[in-house]
Amino acid sequence: MVIREDDLTGTEIRSLIGEHLQGMQLHSPPESIHALNLDGLRKPDITFWSVWTDGELMGCGALKELDARHGEIKSMRTATSHLRKGVAQKLLQHIIAEAKHRGYERLSLETGSMEAFEPARRLYTRFGFEECRPFAHYTNDPNSVFMTMKL
């Protein structure tokens, strides 16, 4: 697996982000969808990575700088054909390492509370994330689970 910074212009990544947004719409009410579209992911405070093997896109994820000491994980997604191959684990390790390298003291995320998001919540818990109160611009939402970890 190769993880590389991505400019979000490739056909494959645009398709995967589209799949990600469709999945959010399928499992979450509109007011509880916090996934970013391509324009949202191109903001200067966001670094976006894609995961590849043998020229095939396996997954993606991003790190948003909330402030000089706090980062947020965004747009974690594994391509359907690569589920349960360790893609999310490898990418999460990469994002955590980058957050530490940047000197962040905390890394947080928002994910869904529905059953479809249970595998993601288990992954984050395995890596040391714990549920927390809403952070940054988020507010209490029964459809969201907020998680954080100290670095």
Automatic annotation (TrEMBL):
UniProt entry tagged with the keyword Acyltransferase: yes
GO terms for MF: acyltransferase activity, transferring groups other than amino-acyl groups
Keyword hit for Acyltransferase: yes
Domain of life: Bacteria
UniProt KW keywords: Acyltransferase, Transferase
Domain N-acetyltransferase stretches: 1-151
Cross-referenced Pfam families: Acetyltransf_1
Regions that span the bilayer: none
Annotated InterPro entries: Acyl_CoA_acyltransferase, Bact_Acetyltransf, GNAT_dom
PANTHER family cross-referenced by the UniProt entry: AMINOALKYLPHOSPHONATE N-ACETYLTRANSFERASE-RELATED-RELATED, BLL8307 PROTEIN
Protein name per Swiss-Prot or TrEMBL: Acetyltransferase
Source organism per UniProt: Fictibacillus enclensis
